[in-house]
Protein: Probable S-methyl-5'-thioinosine phosphorylase
Organism: Allohahella marinimesophila
Amino acid sequence: MLAFIGGTGLTRLEGFEILNEKLVDTPYGQPSAAVLEVGHSEHPQRSAFFLARHGHPHGIAPHAVNYRANIWALKEMGATAVIGVNAVGSVDPSLHPTDLVLPDQLIDYTWGRASTFSTDSAVEHIDFSWPYTASLIEQIVSAAKSSGIQVRQGGVYAATQGPRLETAAEIRRLANDGCTLVGMTGMPEAALAREAGLEYASLCLVVNPAAGVKAEGAPDREITMADIEQAVLDGMSNVRQLIATLVGEQQQR
Ligand SMILES: CSC[C@H]1O[C@H](OP(=O)(O)O)[C@H](O)[C@@H]1O
Ligand code: HPA
């Protein structure tokens, strides 16, 4: 069954009915919130799992998220594939707030996070050449087509430590590294999903041009939470619609 991890601006799936709710205890402690099983009136035979990455209400900073507990809890509930929803800044200046992007690569700049299920006595070196599951990306692309929603396929997600936003020089470095998107939660979530044997993809909603990135001729502006909140408000309805379609297009239970 599909699972969605909601991020900034997606702590609940409005329009969905909560069919079941479970606070899962894991060997790594408590996940960010209860795992919800949700259904949509348009697709009564289908359901999916939903977990709010930053808690409900939003209260857990990106560096403090218990990523291991979140992935463990979804796996234990029976999820086989996870779509992480991520608000991101655009490093690529051709991207704009409210654009949806499906990255196919990532670079991890985070540090000090509990980032593996491996232990000293049981180490697993997973292949992570392609961190996102191609077939799951195709499923999202197909759902976007049938919903009439535009998504850009491909991109490199830079996972930074946060919670502060980056300096303009840091973003220039990310651009030189080949990154096109920047966020603070994409890792270790993606790697843990791979270790747990779960398919994983990231659905990114651009909510701001990253520090120092601006459209040609536009004035240099600070990044404000008001602008980000507006982009979340404007863009999240497409994300919800896409999720409803994905739930409907899943294999029958
Ligand atoms: C200024 S918003 C930053 C916040 O939003 C993103 O979270 P998520 O990926 O969970 O949507 C970003 O990573 C930061 O945590
Ligand atoms: O500009 C950003 N940087 C890092 N994370 C983010 N999440 C949303 N916007 C940003």
In short: The chain has a mean pLDDT of 95. The pocket of LNRAV4D5 (ligand 1) is lined by residues 7-8, 53-54, 62, 86-87, 162, 183-185, 228 (CB under 6 Å).
